[in-house]
Amino acid sequence: MNRPHGGRRKEKQYMLLYTLTYMAIGTLTPLIGQYLAGIGMGGTQVGMITSAGTLTAVFANPFWGRIYTHRGRRHRLLACLCFAAAAVSLAVRAGNAFWLILPCFILLYFFQAPVMSLSDALAIDDGVTFGHVRTLGAVGFAFAVFAAAHIASDAGADKIFVVYSLCYTAAAIVILAISSGSAGGHAAVRAASPAFKENTVQSQAGRRRLFSALLHNRDYITLVLCAFFINGTDVANNTFFSFLYIKAGGTMAGVGVAFLLMAGSEAPFMAASGWLVRRFGRGSILLAAMAVSLLRFGWYAFEPPWQMLLAFFALQGFVNGITLVEFVRFAADLVPAGMRGAAIALYYALGSSASTIVCQAAGGMILDRCGAGGVYLFFALFNAAGLLLFVISGLFRRSGKSAGQGDG
Predict the structure, then answer these.
(1) Rounded to an integer, what distance in angstroms lies between the CA atom of residue 90 and that of residue 107?
(2) How far apart are CA 178 and CA 197, in angstroms?
(3) Which H helix or E strand runs over 6?
């Protein structure tokens, strides 16, 4: 069945929106460490700044999520967040000392962090084909790292903030264009109704019982702990890989090429993850991905030449393509259907965000004392703890296809 013209137009607008917003993230995240080092900051300060941003995101997402749920003009809210992030990024660029940049970076993440989740919610509310438009985010991220690295190499690393600001400004304009063609308001009406508010109060009353039940689900909590020892290293790698690559003889522009290949290789493994799980079982394929992550970072600890780092770009694709998808699906399979929303939220809070904060902060301190090789030795040991727990617990034998059987 053919889509109406208006539906096709809106889908194209969302494709552009996801490309732009993830371009902004791809411009900033992999190169912020090099920028901060270039203005005289040490690894500890780099780690503190980046981990502070991640910590801010933990609180910013529910704060703006509640406003999105209970207020109208959802498109305008998201556009304002994009405009604010664009403006604050220029303030980060203007700072030249740790105690000036740190609060600006926290403020940047306060506005930036919810853009991803609220874009997802808005796309789903507007009825576009979510999986189709979401893939453009990965494309935008990979392309942005490649382009921004060349710009930083030719014109200076501070230019990443200009590119970031332009991307988010353009994204805000696209959101306003989408809003002009959307009926809107149905969620706002629903949120304002007495029945909605009553249900919200009831859900708040039941939330403690939900999380209490999750904390008593032994297999689920074990899986979250395993993810804790894997996910943070993969995210922190975005910050510290450039230090390893340049120390190994590579260039800033080469960092862009490396991320283009590494991030680009994730998509085919994500697409194949379903087939791999059906063929080998979810526990087995996750075990393989965790083992590859451990071996990859253990090899990085020896600081191989940049040509070798570039040649084995697909290792990231295999690890991230599997773990980013299958950890979440496994967590959902280990709890009853009615608890999956809370289970996934808790998984992201503990298994991803908390892990990233630890790895960014610890990685920065280790970078000062032991160099890039020491950072990746820490990452390998961190992965080893997760892999060992996964094996000892017996989760690697699980197919992940039965739900609600993990209560201890």
Answers:
(1) 12
(2) 28
(3) helix 5-28
Q: Quickly list DSSP for 82-143.
A: HHHHHHHHHHHHH--SHHHHHHHHHHHHHHHHHHHHHHHHHHHHTT--HHHHHHHHHHHHHH
The residues, ordered by sequence, that sit 6+ positions from 75 with a Cβ below 8 Å of its Cβ are 122, 175, 176, 178, 179, 182, 184
Query: DSSP H helical segments within 156-193, as ranges?
Result: 159-180, 186-192
Q: How far apart are CA 17 and CA 50, in angstroms?
A: 25
Contact yes or no for 60/42 (Cβ under 8 A)? no
Given this model, what pLDDT does residue 198 score?
Answer: 45
Q: Which residues of 313-331 are buried (b: 16+ CB within 10 A; e: fewer)?
A: bbbbbbbbbbbbbbbbbbb
Whole-model pTM?
0.83
DSSP code of 313? Answer: T
Half-sphere exposure of 174 (CA within 13 A, CB side): 23
26 neighbors 142 (Cβ within 8 angstroms): yes
Confidence class of residue 215 from pLDDT cuts 50, 70 and 90? Answer: confident
> Distance between CA 155 and CA 157 in Å, rounded?
7
Copy the structure tokens of residue 285: 């394929």
Q: How far apart are CA 319 and CA 312, in angstroms?
A: 12
Pairwise CA distance, residues 128 & 120, whole Å: 10
Contact (CB, 8 A) for 201 and 122:
no
Structure token digits, residue 20: 């732009």
pLDDT tens digits for range 244-277 = 999 999 999 999 999 999 988 888 888 888 899 8
- Measured CA to CA, the distance from residue 406 to residue 222 in angstroms comes to 10
Token duo for residue 345: 């939220």
